[in-house]
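Quick one from the shared queue. A colleague (R.T.) flagged Integral membrane protein as missing a structural entry in our internal table.

Convert sequence to structure tokens.
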Amino acid sequence: MTIGKDLAQRNNVIRAAVMGANDGILSVSGIVIGVAGATTDSFAIFIAGFAGALAGTVSMAMGEYVSVHSENDAQIKAVATQKAALANHYEQEFDFVKRQYMTQGISADLAQTATAELMARDSLETTIRERYGFTQHHEISALAAALASMISFPLGSLLPMLAITLLPVHLRIPATALAVLVALAITGFSAAHLSGANEYKATGRNVIAGIFTMIVTYFVGTLIGA
């Protein structure tokens, strides 16, 4: 296994783990705060949270597995398509790569030379990279992503479940909400950092999503419990 593939695998597992934890926090906090708006029964709140955590764990793991598998299948299909294209229309593929370099500001002569060298070295790799934007043999493990999500989702869900059931009744909702928002800020920042996005905007969006979720579910819970 190459260093590039090792790095891609590691980043994918970390991404799945962070997103799994984030979804566990967000989903289960919405459930338990909604139920807490309807009843003060700690056992009922805990059971609702546990059911949501169990369902979310299975759903997230299967979602990761199917998503990553689909991406890998699409890459395999693209490789097969490109092999056929090179076998039957090599000159067209050569011209496509050359045009790609020219659109980046490279002169026609230099683009011709670069294309000729790269196509001679590995025409399949070159055309796949330019047409589809990925590198061969860097498929991500769907199983690893699913396992990371399966572990991290319930771990994330523990925070709101424990806070809402263990704290005194008069503190449980505001204290749980505060703990959840801090946790969402951490996971939002981490996810953005891994993906190269703006950390502060992503953190803000994640926190706002948490606030909105908890307000809506609490309001619905109070209506049902009234």
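The CA atoms of residues 119 and 126 lie 6 Å apart.
Residues 3-78+142-225 form one domain.
Added to the table.
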